[in-house]
Amino acid sequence: MAGPIDPKLVPKRTLASGEKIPCIGMGTFGSDRYPPAEISAAVGGAIRAGYRLFDCAAVYGNEDRIGEVFDDAFNSGVVKREELFINSKVWNDMHGRGNVLLALAKTLRDLRLDYLDSYMVHWPFPNCHTPGCAGDARNPDSVPFSADRFMGAWKQMERIVDMGLARYIGMSNMTIPKLEAVLPLCRIQPAMIEMEMHPGFQQPDLYKYCVDRKILVIGFSPVGSPNRPDRDKADGDIAATEIPELVAIAKAHGLHPAIVCLKWAVQRGQIPIPFSVHEKNYLANLRCVTEDPLTDAEMAAIARADKNCRLIKGQVFLWEGAKGWEDLWD
Ligand SMILES: NC(=O)c1ccc[n+]([C@@H]2O[C@H](COP(=O)([O-])OP(=O)(O)OC[C@H]3O[C@@H](n4cnc5c(N)ncnc54)[C@H](OP(=O)(O)O)[C@@H]3O)[C@@H](O)[C@H]2O)c1
Q1: In the structure, what pLDDT confidence band is assigned to residue 129 with cuts at 50, 70 and 90?
Q2: Closest CA to 179 of 200, 143, 199, 203
């Protein structure tokens, strides 16, 4: 198997602050399929492989195990804390007054860190589902988006920056109308916005909206999340890795279609955060951004192949009276 990648060879993206961060990271959501120990072992392997950006979240239920791995890596001198860029996210049940700081304290304790590089609001509503629930599960306490309510959480996020506990703050699962409603109210603008993004769901308008405002885009499910939880699977979903144009490009390069998804993401400009516990895959995912770029014609062919097919629809967050998952996305 090919060896590690020198992190210096991994291209960088520039935050509005001017700081440069890696153009690719590793996701840590096990889709209710991979146990925490397997994921944390992969994080350890990924650090040794040359990954320097990790996307964590309290709701993934594995921050304590990942924290052990970070601690080991720092103590054994494999990497220094300041060489990693570590994201985490506040879960929907912790948006209320005083709760964001409590959630962050738990995340810092679990990850065994003094500060996060970035802390994000995972979803823009306080709506929760029980772990492992079915797709049609509904919580009677769920509510539609409200800019006022969101800003209650965001003001707490801003104070976290003031306290030096997170270097940047960000949002996730936003839309242009929601951003239009909240960005003018933010004392500290989001440095990054995490959103579903793969060749089958390219979100060109939201992507441009963020780029125009110097907000970095982090693309989740960059391979199209083939092992996503069953609650996130629906009739009519299109697998990013089976789009014919993409498969043809993969064949021409002698690559797995997943790798073409990642090359497309990085060359377009978003930061993909692919997940895999398999060394062969996570190594290939990092290596692919350092060699054999796609041609302009291949990039254009993938852009034209967009299916506008959202896979992570979020229907478990719907409120009483909502018609369907589209209501979550304006
Ligand atoms: N902000 C949010 O609301 C949100 C939502 C969803 C996800 N995320 C973040 O985004 C990360 C990635 O998203 P995701 O896990 O949903 O989907 P993903 O990265 O698109 O897909 C992960 C799956 O792709 C397969 N894969 C990865 N690299 C591969 C390769 N080189 N060749 C073949 N197969 C490959 C893996 O299979 P194997 O396991 O077999 O290798 C893995 O199960 C998550 O882990 C999480 O950190 C955030």
Answers
A1: confident
A2: 203
- For the chain, give me the number of helices (H) and strands (E)? 10, 10
Single pTM value for the model? 0.97
CA-nearest residue for atom 42, ligand 1, is 276
Residues with Cβ within 8 Å of 323's Cβ and at least 6 positions away in sequence, in order, are: none
Q: Which residue from 24, 172, 196, 275 has its CB within 8 A of the most atoms of ligand 1, so it is best to mutate?
A: 275
* pLDDT for position 268: 98
Cβ neighbour number for residue 188 with a 10 Å cutoff: 15
What fold does the segment set 20-321+324-328 form as a domain? TIM Barrel (3.20.20)
Burial class (CB in 10 A: 0-12, 13-18, 19+), 296: exposed
Q: 222 C-alpha to center of ligand 1: Å? A: 7
Distance 274 CA to ligand 1 centre (A): 4
- Residue 149's pLDDT is what? 98
306-325 tens-digit pLDDT:
999 999 999 999 998 899 99
Domain ranges of the chain: 20-321+324-328
Ligand 1: list residues with CB < 6 Å: 27-29, 31, 55, 122, 172-173, 194, 220-228, 256, 258-259, 273-278, 281, 284-285, 312
Cα 154 to Cα 90: distance, rounded to the nearest angstrom: 11
Q: Which positions are annotated as active-site residues?
A: 60
Distance, in Å, from the CA atom of 309 to the CA atom of 314, rounded to the nearest integer, reads 13
* Angstrom distances, CA of residue 156 to CA of 126, 145, 147, 184, 187: 14, 18, 14, 16, 11
Ligand 1 closest atom vs CA 228: 16
